TrEMBL record:
Family classification: Belongs to the metallo-dependent hydrolases superfamily. Adenosine and AMP deaminases family.
One Pfam family matching this protein: A_deaminase
Protein name: Adenosine/AMP deaminase domain containing protein
GO terms for MF: adenosine deaminase activity; metal ion binding
Cofactor(s) it depends on: Zn(2+)
GO biological process: adenosine catabolic process; inosine biosynthetic process; nucleotide metabolic process
Keywords noted in UniProt: Hydrolase, Metal-binding, Nucleotide metabolism, Zinc
Reactions this protein catalyses: N(6)-methyl-AMP + H2O + H(+) = IMP + methylamine
Gene3D superfamilies for the chain: Metal-dependent hydrolases
Taxonomic classification: Eukaryota, Viridiplantae, Streptophyta, Embryophyta, Tracheophyta
Domain Adenosine deaminase: 8-352
Xref: InterPro entries: A_deaminase_dom, Ado/ade_deaminase, Metal_Hydrolase
Length: 365
Protein backbone atom coordinates (compact mmCIF):
# COMPACT_ATOMS: atom_id res chain seq x y z
CA UNK A 1 0.00 0.00 0.00
CA UNK A 2 2.94 2.27 0.80
CA UNK A 3 3.86 2.45 -2.93
CA UNK A 4 0.42 3.73 -3.82
CA UNK A 5 0.25 6.15 -0.93
CA UNK A 6 3.62 7.76 -1.52
CA UNK A 7 2.86 8.40 -5.20
CA UNK A 8 1.46 11.87 -6.01
CA UNK A 9 -2.08 11.51 -7.31
CA UNK A 10 -4.81 13.56 -8.95
CA UNK A 11 -8.46 13.02 -7.94
CA UNK A 12 -11.01 14.21 -10.47
CA UNK A 13 -14.23 12.48 -9.41
CA UNK A 14 -15.07 12.84 -5.71
CA UNK A 15 -18.50 13.85 -4.36
CA UNK A 16 -18.25 15.84 -1.13
CA UNK A 17 -21.07 14.16 0.82
CA UNK A 18 -20.09 10.72 -0.43
CA UNK A 19 -16.56 11.31 0.82
CA UNK A 20 -17.50 12.17 4.43
CA UNK A 21 -15.86 9.96 7.07
CA UNK A 22 -18.01 7.17 8.55
CA UNK A 23 -16.87 8.28 12.01
CA UNK A 24 -18.20 11.79 11.38
CA UNK A 25 -21.51 10.49 10.02
CA UNK A 26 -21.94 8.23 13.04
CA UNK A 27 -21.18 11.10 15.40
CA UNK A 28 -23.75 13.29 13.62
CA UNK A 29 -26.30 10.47 13.66
CA UNK A 30 -25.79 9.99 17.39
CA UNK A 31 -26.52 13.67 18.03
CA UNK A 32 -29.70 13.58 15.91
CA UNK A 33 -30.64 10.29 17.59
CA UNK A 34 -30.38 11.95 21.02
CA UNK A 35 -32.59 14.78 19.80
CA UNK A 36 -35.13 12.19 18.64
CA UNK A 37 -34.93 13.29 14.98
CA UNK A 38 -33.79 9.83 13.85
CA UNK A 39 -33.41 6.35 15.34
CA UNK A 40 -29.65 5.96 15.75
CA UNK A 41 -29.48 2.17 15.54
CA UNK A 42 -31.36 2.12 12.21
CA UNK A 43 -29.06 4.74 10.75
CA UNK A 44 -25.91 3.08 12.12
CA UNK A 45 -26.82 -0.11 10.32
CA UNK A 46 -27.29 1.73 7.01
CA UNK A 47 -24.05 3.71 7.31
CA UNK A 48 -21.94 0.65 8.15
CA UNK A 49 -23.35 -1.63 5.46
CA UNK A 50 -20.78 -2.21 2.72
CA UNK A 51 -22.59 -3.87 -0.19
CA UNK A 52 -25.31 -1.78 -1.72
CA UNK A 53 -27.13 -1.69 -5.02
CA UNK A 54 -27.16 1.58 -6.97
CA UNK A 55 -30.73 2.09 -5.74
CA UNK A 56 -29.67 1.67 -2.11
CA UNK A 57 -26.77 4.08 -2.59
CA UNK A 58 -29.17 6.86 -3.47
CA UNK A 59 -31.29 6.07 -0.43
CA UNK A 60 -28.12 6.35 1.64
CA UNK A 61 -27.39 9.76 0.11
CA UNK A 62 -30.80 10.98 1.23
CA UNK A 63 -29.89 9.89 4.74
CA UNK A 64 -26.40 11.45 4.59
CA UNK A 65 -27.99 14.72 3.46
CA UNK A 66 -30.27 14.70 6.53
CA UNK A 67 -27.15 14.40 8.69
CA UNK A 68 -24.96 16.94 6.90
CA UNK A 69 -27.13 19.67 5.41
CA UNK A 70 -26.20 22.38 7.87
CA UNK A 71 -23.64 25.14 7.27
CA UNK A 72 -21.27 24.20 10.10
CA UNK A 73 -21.35 20.51 9.21
CA UNK A 74 -20.70 21.18 5.54
CA UNK A 75 -17.67 23.24 6.59
CA UNK A 76 -16.47 20.42 8.80
CA UNK A 77 -16.82 17.64 6.23
CA UNK A 78 -15.16 19.76 3.53
CA UNK A 79 -12.18 20.31 5.82
CA UNK A 80 -11.96 16.61 6.70
CA UNK A 81 -12.33 15.41 3.11
CA UNK A 82 -9.53 17.70 1.90
CA UNK A 83 -7.30 16.59 4.78
CA UNK A 84 -7.99 12.93 4.04
CA UNK A 85 -7.09 13.26 0.37
CA UNK A 86 -3.97 15.31 1.17
CA UNK A 87 -2.83 12.70 3.69
CA UNK A 88 -2.59 10.10 0.93
CA UNK A 89 -0.63 12.47 -1.33
CA UNK A 90 -3.39 13.68 -3.56
CA UNK A 91 -1.77 16.84 -4.93
CA UNK A 92 -4.77 18.08 -6.93
CA UNK A 93 -8.37 17.46 -5.89
CA UNK A 94 -11.37 18.42 -7.97
CA UNK A 95 -14.15 18.18 -5.42
CA UNK A 96 -17.74 18.22 -6.58
CA UNK A 97 -20.88 18.95 -4.61
CA UNK A 98 -24.55 19.74 -5.22
CA UNK A 99 -25.39 23.20 -3.82
CA UNK A 100 -28.45 22.76 -1.59
CA UNK A 101 -31.33 24.98 -0.55
CA UNK A 102 -33.14 24.47 2.73
CA UNK A 103 -35.45 27.30 3.76
CA UNK A 104 -36.05 25.89 7.25
CA UNK A 105 -32.42 26.55 8.23
CA UNK A 106 -31.92 29.62 6.02
CA UNK A 107 -29.70 27.77 3.59
CA UNK A 108 -29.45 28.96 0.01
CA UNK A 109 -27.31 27.40 -2.71
CA UNK A 110 -24.98 30.35 -2.25
CA UNK A 111 -24.70 30.03 1.55
CA UNK A 112 -24.13 26.26 1.11
CA UNK A 113 -21.16 27.02 -1.13
CA UNK A 114 -19.88 29.65 1.29
CA UNK A 115 -19.83 26.90 3.93
CA UNK A 116 -17.80 24.68 1.57
CA UNK A 117 -15.31 27.49 1.00
CA UNK A 118 -15.08 28.06 4.76
CA UNK A 119 -14.12 24.38 4.98
CA UNK A 120 -11.27 24.89 2.52
CA UNK A 121 -10.04 27.82 4.60
CA UNK A 122 -10.35 25.82 7.82
CA UNK A 123 -7.81 23.18 6.78
CA UNK A 124 -4.69 23.50 8.92
CA UNK A 125 -2.96 20.15 8.41
CA UNK A 126 -1.82 21.14 4.89
CA UNK A 127 -1.73 24.26 2.74
CA UNK A 128 -4.72 24.45 0.44
CA UNK A 129 -4.35 26.36 -2.83
CA UNK A 130 -7.84 27.04 -4.09
CA UNK A 131 -8.15 30.76 -4.87
CA UNK A 132 -7.63 31.11 -8.59
CA UNK A 133 -6.15 34.59 -8.18
CA UNK A 134 -3.43 33.09 -5.94
CA UNK A 135 -1.99 31.77 -9.13
CA UNK A 136 -2.10 35.09 -10.97
CA UNK A 137 -0.09 36.81 -8.30
CA UNK A 138 3.65 36.48 -7.90
CA UNK A 139 5.55 33.94 -9.90
CA UNK A 140 2.53 31.82 -10.66
CA UNK A 141 4.40 28.75 -9.49
CA UNK A 142 2.74 27.43 -6.39
CA UNK A 143 4.49 24.18 -5.66
CA UNK A 144 2.47 21.60 -3.80
CA UNK A 145 5.39 20.22 -1.85
CA UNK A 146 7.13 23.34 -0.70
CA UNK A 147 10.03 23.44 1.65
CA UNK A 148 9.50 25.75 4.55
CA UNK A 149 12.47 28.10 4.21
CA UNK A 150 12.58 28.88 7.94
CA UNK A 151 13.16 25.43 9.34
CA UNK A 152 13.73 23.26 6.28
CA UNK A 153 10.73 21.00 6.87
CA UNK A 154 8.49 20.11 3.94
CA UNK A 155 4.95 21.36 4.27
CA UNK A 156 2.37 19.61 2.16
CA UNK A 157 0.13 21.54 -0.19
CA UNK A 158 -2.88 20.46 -2.14
CA UNK A 159 -4.60 22.22 -5.00
CA UNK A 160 -8.38 22.14 -4.68
CA UNK A 161 -10.80 23.12 -7.42
CA UNK A 162 -14.59 22.84 -7.18
CA UNK A 163 -17.26 21.53 -9.51
CA UNK A 164 -20.90 22.33 -8.82
CA UNK A 165 -23.16 19.34 -9.39
CA UNK A 166 -26.61 19.47 -10.90
CA UNK A 167 -28.74 16.69 -9.40
CA UNK A 168 -30.88 14.82 -11.94
CA UNK A 169 -33.91 15.49 -9.71
CA UNK A 170 -33.59 19.23 -10.40
CA UNK A 171 -35.58 21.40 -12.84
CA UNK A 172 -34.12 23.43 -15.70
CA UNK A 173 -34.42 26.58 -13.55
CA UNK A 174 -32.67 24.99 -10.58
CA UNK A 175 -29.88 23.76 -12.85
CA UNK A 176 -29.53 27.26 -14.28
CA UNK A 177 -29.29 28.70 -10.77
CA UNK A 178 -26.40 26.34 -10.05
CA UNK A 179 -24.58 27.38 -13.22
CA UNK A 180 -25.03 31.09 -12.39
CA UNK A 181 -23.69 30.45 -8.91
CA UNK A 182 -20.68 28.64 -10.39
CA UNK A 183 -19.95 31.69 -12.54
CA UNK A 184 -20.06 33.96 -9.48
CA UNK A 185 -17.65 31.69 -7.63
CA UNK A 186 -14.94 31.31 -10.23
CA UNK A 187 -12.51 33.41 -8.17
CA UNK A 188 -12.71 30.88 -5.33
CA UNK A 189 -11.80 27.93 -7.49
CA UNK A 190 -15.04 26.82 -9.13
CA UNK A 191 -14.00 25.51 -12.53
CA UNK A 192 -16.91 23.49 -13.82
CA UNK A 193 -20.24 21.73 -13.68
CA UNK A 194 -21.06 18.07 -13.11
CA UNK A 195 -24.34 16.31 -13.87
CA UNK A 196 -25.00 13.52 -11.36
CA UNK A 197 -27.66 11.93 -9.19
CA UNK A 198 -29.76 8.83 -9.60
CA UNK A 199 -29.31 7.86 -13.28
CA UNK A 200 -32.84 6.48 -13.61
CA UNK A 201 -34.32 9.83 -12.60
CA UNK A 202 -34.81 12.84 -14.92
CA UNK A 203 -34.29 13.58 -18.58
CA UNK A 204 -31.02 14.74 -20.15
CA UNK A 205 -32.86 17.43 -22.14
CA UNK A 206 -33.96 19.12 -18.89
CA UNK A 207 -30.36 20.05 -18.11
CA UNK A 208 -29.20 20.86 -21.60
CA UNK A 209 -30.03 24.62 -21.54
CA UNK A 210 -28.06 25.11 -18.31
CA UNK A 211 -25.14 23.00 -19.55
CA UNK A 212 -25.03 24.89 -22.86
CA UNK A 213 -25.04 28.19 -20.99
CA UNK A 214 -22.26 26.95 -18.70
CA UNK A 215 -20.15 26.02 -21.68
CA UNK A 216 -20.76 29.38 -23.44
CA UNK A 217 -19.55 31.09 -20.28
CA UNK A 218 -16.34 29.07 -20.26
CA UNK A 219 -17.05 26.54 -17.51
CA UNK A 220 -15.82 22.97 -18.06
CA UNK A 221 -18.32 20.12 -18.00
CA UNK A 222 -18.24 16.53 -16.86
CA UNK A 223 -21.27 14.24 -17.08
CA UNK A 224 -22.18 11.00 -15.32
CA UNK A 225 -22.74 9.00 -18.46
CA UNK A 226 -23.89 5.42 -18.95
CA UNK A 227 -24.17 4.40 -15.29
CA UNK A 228 -27.26 2.50 -16.45
CA UNK A 229 -28.12 1.37 -20.00
CA UNK A 230 -29.71 4.26 -21.91
CA UNK A 231 -28.40 4.40 -25.51
CA UNK A 232 -30.31 7.53 -26.54
CA UNK A 233 -29.08 9.52 -23.58
CA UNK A 234 -25.51 8.22 -23.84
CA UNK A 235 -25.39 9.12 -27.55
CA UNK A 236 -26.66 12.68 -26.93
CA UNK A 237 -24.32 13.17 -24.00
CA UNK A 238 -21.32 12.19 -26.11
CA UNK A 239 -22.50 14.44 -28.96
CA UNK A 240 -22.51 17.30 -26.47
CA UNK A 241 -18.73 16.81 -26.22
CA UNK A 242 -18.21 17.24 -22.48
CA UNK A 243 -14.57 17.72 -21.40
CA UNK A 244 -14.82 14.47 -19.39
CA UNK A 245 -17.38 11.82 -18.50
CA UNK A 246 -17.73 9.66 -15.40
CA UNK A 247 -18.32 5.88 -15.29
CA UNK A 248 -19.22 4.75 -18.86
CA UNK A 249 -20.34 1.37 -17.48
CA UNK A 250 -23.22 0.47 -19.76
CA UNK A 251 -21.93 1.33 -23.22
CA UNK A 252 -22.70 -0.67 -26.38
CA UNK A 253 -20.39 -1.08 -29.35
CA UNK A 254 -21.62 2.09 -31.09
CA UNK A 255 -21.10 4.18 -27.95
CA UNK A 256 -17.56 2.88 -27.43
CA UNK A 257 -16.77 3.84 -31.01
CA UNK A 258 -18.14 7.33 -30.49
CA UNK A 259 -16.34 7.80 -27.16
CA UNK A 260 -13.04 6.72 -28.69
CA UNK A 261 -13.41 8.81 -31.82
CA UNK A 262 -14.21 11.89 -29.71
CA UNK A 263 -11.34 11.03 -27.36
CA UNK A 264 -13.30 12.10 -24.25
CA UNK A 265 -11.40 11.27 -21.02
CA UNK A 266 -13.19 8.85 -18.68
CA UNK A 267 -13.21 9.07 -14.88
CA UNK A 268 -13.05 5.42 -13.79
CA UNK A 269 -14.38 4.46 -10.35
CA UNK A 270 -13.57 0.75 -9.93
CA UNK A 271 -14.79 0.08 -6.39
CA UNK A 272 -17.95 2.12 -6.89
CA UNK A 273 -18.84 0.20 -10.07
CA UNK A 274 -18.30 -3.17 -8.40
CA UNK A 275 -20.08 -2.29 -5.14
CA UNK A 276 -23.13 -0.94 -6.97
CA UNK A 277 -23.03 -3.88 -9.36
CA UNK A 278 -23.03 -1.68 -12.46
CA UNK A 279 -20.08 -3.87 -13.52
CA UNK A 280 -20.23 -7.50 -12.42
CA UNK A 281 -16.49 -8.04 -11.83
CA UNK A 282 -13.11 -6.43 -12.44
CA UNK A 283 -12.31 -9.11 -15.06
CA UNK A 284 -14.87 -7.55 -17.37
CA UNK A 285 -14.33 -3.92 -16.38
CA UNK A 286 -13.90 -1.54 -19.33
CA UNK A 287 -10.73 -0.14 -17.75
CA UNK A 288 -8.75 -2.93 -19.42
CA UNK A 289 -9.98 -2.23 -22.94
CA UNK A 290 -9.69 1.55 -22.63
CA UNK A 291 -6.21 1.27 -21.14
CA UNK A 292 -5.07 -1.05 -23.91
CA UNK A 293 -6.50 1.33 -26.51
CA UNK A 294 -4.59 4.19 -24.82
CA UNK A 295 -7.87 6.03 -24.37
CA UNK A 296 -7.55 8.95 -21.89
CA UNK A 297 -8.69 7.80 -18.45
CA UNK A 298 -8.13 8.50 -14.80
CA UNK A 299 -8.70 6.45 -11.64
CA UNK A 300 -11.05 8.10 -9.15
CA UNK A 301 -12.85 7.24 -5.91
CA UNK A 302 -16.41 8.55 -6.49
CA UNK A 303 -17.44 8.30 -2.81
CA UNK A 304 -14.61 7.38 -0.43
CA UNK A 305 -16.96 7.20 2.56
CA UNK A 306 -19.86 5.35 0.98
CA UNK A 307 -17.60 2.75 -0.68
CA UNK A 308 -14.93 2.56 2.06
CA UNK A 309 -12.08 3.19 -0.33
CA UNK A 310 -9.26 5.68 -0.96
CA UNK A 311 -7.48 6.79 -4.11
CA UNK A 312 -4.41 4.76 -3.08
CA UNK A 313 -6.65 1.65 -2.81
CA UNK A 314 -8.05 2.29 -6.29
CA UNK A 315 -4.47 2.30 -7.67
CA UNK A 316 -3.69 -0.87 -5.74
CA UNK A 317 -6.80 -2.57 -7.10
CA UNK A 318 -5.93 -1.51 -10.67
CA UNK A 319 -2.39 -2.82 -10.20
CA UNK A 320 -3.51 -6.26 -9.15
CA UNK A 321 -6.59 -6.59 -11.37
CA UNK A 322 -4.93 -5.40 -14.57
CA UNK A 323 -1.32 -6.37 -13.90
CA UNK A 324 0.15 -2.86 -13.88
CA UNK A 325 3.64 -2.20 -12.54
CA UNK A 326 4.90 0.74 -10.52
CA UNK A 327 5.97 2.75 -13.59
CA UNK A 328 2.68 2.21 -15.40
CA UNK A 329 0.70 3.28 -12.35
CA UNK A 330 2.81 6.35 -11.92
CA UNK A 331 2.26 7.22 -15.57
CA UNK A 332 -1.48 6.69 -15.13
CA UNK A 333 -1.50 9.14 -12.22
CA UNK A 334 0.64 11.61 -14.15
CA UNK A 335 -1.62 11.48 -17.23
CA UNK A 336 -4.53 12.78 -15.16
CA UNK A 337 -2.80 16.17 -14.98
CA UNK A 338 -3.74 16.69 -18.63
CA UNK A 339 -7.46 16.30 -17.87
CA UNK A 340 -7.78 18.70 -14.91
CA UNK A 341 -10.11 21.67 -15.34
CA UNK A 342 -7.69 24.12 -13.68
CA UNK A 343 -5.69 26.57 -15.77
CA UNK A 344 -2.35 26.05 -17.48
CA UNK A 345 -0.32 27.50 -14.61
CA UNK A 346 -1.66 24.86 -12.26
CA UNK A 347 -1.13 22.18 -14.88
CA UNK A 348 2.49 23.11 -15.44
CA UNK A 349 3.11 23.15 -11.69
CA UNK A 350 1.55 19.69 -11.41
CA UNK A 351 3.77 18.43 -14.24
CA UNK A 352 6.76 19.69 -12.26
CA UNK A 353 5.56 17.89 -9.15
CA UNK A 354 5.28 14.61 -11.07
CA UNK A 355 8.68 15.14 -12.68
CA UNK A 356 10.42 15.53 -9.37
CA UNK A 357 8.45 12.64 -7.83
CA UNK A 358 9.49 10.40 -10.74
CA UNK A 359 13.13 10.89 -9.75
CA UNK A 360 12.44 10.46 -6.04
CA UNK A 361 10.40 7.29 -6.54
CA UNK A 362 12.70 5.88 -9.19
CA UNK A 363 9.99 5.54 -11.83
CA UNK A 364 11.59 7.48 -14.68
CA UNK A 365 10.36 6.06 -18.00
C1 LIG B 1 -24.46 9.43 -9.57
C2 LIG B 1 -23.69 10.24 -7.56
C3 LIG B 1 -22.94 9.05 -7.36
O1 LIG B 1 -23.28 16.44 -4.10
O2 LIG B 1 -24.30 16.01 -1.87
N1 LIG B 1 -23.50 11.03 -6.50
N2 LIG B 1 -24.43 10.42 -8.67
N3 LIG B 1 -23.78 8.28 -9.43
C4 LIG B 1 -23.03 8.03 -8.33
N4 LIG B 1 -22.41 6.81 -8.22
C5 LIG B 1 -22.50 5.98 -7.12
N5 LIG B 1 -22.29 9.17 -6.18
C6 LIG B 1 -22.64 10.41 -5.68
O3 LIG B 1 -22.67 14.38 -2.85
C7 LIG B 1 -23.60 13.33 -2.94
C8 LIG B 1 -24.35 13.39 -4.25
O4 LIG B 1 -23.47 13.08 -5.33
C9 LIG B 1 -24.16 12.35 -6.35
C10 LIG B 1 -25.59 12.19 -5.88
O5 LIG B 1 -26.38 13.23 -6.42
C11 LIG B 1 -25.46 12.35 -4.37
O6 LIG B 1 -26.65 12.79 -3.75
P1 LIG B 1 -23.06 15.92 -2.72
O7 LIG B 1 -21.87 16.54 -2.05
Amino acid sequence: METYQSMPKVELHAHLNGSARDSTLLELARVLGEKGVIVFSDVEHVIMKSDRSLHEVFKLFDLIHILTTDHKIITRITKEVVEDFASENVVYLELRTTPKKNDSIGMTKCSYMEAVIEGLKAVTAVDVAFMTHDMDAGTGVDSVLLTDTCNGTARKKIYVRLLLSIDRRETTEAAMETVKLALELRHVGVVGIDLSGNPIVGEWTTFLPALKFAREQGLCITLHCGEVPNPTEIGSMLDFLPQRIGHACCFEEEEWKKLKSFNIPVEICLTSNIRTNTISSLDVHHFADLYKAKHPLTLCTDDVGVFSTSLSSEYKIAASAFGLGKRELFQLARNAVEFVFADDLVKSDLREIFNSAAKRLDVLP
